[in-house]
Amino acid sequence: MNRQLLLLFTFYVLVSSIQAIDFTYCGQYDEENFPLKVQQIKIIPDPVVTGKPAIFNISAVTDRSVSGGKVMIEVRYFGIRVHSETHDICEEVSCPIEAGNFVLSHAETLPGYTPPGVYTLKMKMIGKNGYQLTCFSFKFKIGFGALVSES
GO molecular function of the protein, one example (predicted)? Predict the structure, then answer.
């Protein structure tokens, strides 16, 4: 019985430590300007650990079907762009995205030499027709990774 309580407590602590991340829409835009609206962002683990996989889950809702397009990611550190990448939307979420709720999940393993600190990630999603579906940014933390590889 004590073992079950310990397991339940451990699960509760792990789940409750995953908190939603604050985000803002790009520039002068607000959510009313986009057909795709972000509901919640979660990062696992938070803070991100260098050399270990991190998962960025973006829960969103759309009022239209999306059959393709691209996801553009830009990462800044102290305001300086340090990384950018572009992916096909259908690599990040199953297409077509039907109107309603969905989760875009992006996994990334940062190199061990990535400096710890607070970073800003900006994500734009552009539909097949070139129409901007959404644009938002959020801050995330990178902690210290293991300085010595585990044997």
Answer: sterol binding
* Cβ–Cβ < 8 Å for 57, 103: yes
The domain tally of the chain equals 1
Identity at 11, one-letter amino acid code: F
In a domain, 29, yes or no: yes
Closest CA to 91 of 70, 109, 121: 70
The pair of three-digit structure tokens given for residue 51, joined into one six-digit string: 């050399």
Domain that holds residue 85: 25-140
| pLDDT at residue 45, as a whole number | 95
Question: What's the one-letter identity of residue 90?
Answer: C
Give 12-49 pLDDT, tens digit per residue. 334 434 568 999 998 766 667 789 999 999 999 999 99
pTM recorded for the entire structure: 0.79
CATH of the domain at 32: 2.60.40.770
CA distances from 27 to 4, 76, 134 (A): 49, 16, 12
Which helix (H) or strand (E) segment holds residue 52: the answer is none
Q: Is 116 part of a structural domain of the chain?
A: yes
